[in-house]
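Run log // design_07
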């Protein structure tokens, strides 16, 4: 079955499908989504 293009989760680098029904997209899981949120809150990510 063809689900479309694959991308990598920006946190753990696991491959996920673009068209897959994923509540946590663009992350692969709730854990990766929370890790990303923490990185924003802690100041690791910055907008210039």
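design_07 sequence
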């Amino acid at each position: 079955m063809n689900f479309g293009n694959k991308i990598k989760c920006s946190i753990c680098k696991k491959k996920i499908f673009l068209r897959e029904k994923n509540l946590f997209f663009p992350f692969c899981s709730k854990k990766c989504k929370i890790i990303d949120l923490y990185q924003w809150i802690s100041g690791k990510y910055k907008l210039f």
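The CA atoms of residues 1 and 20 lie 11 Å apart.
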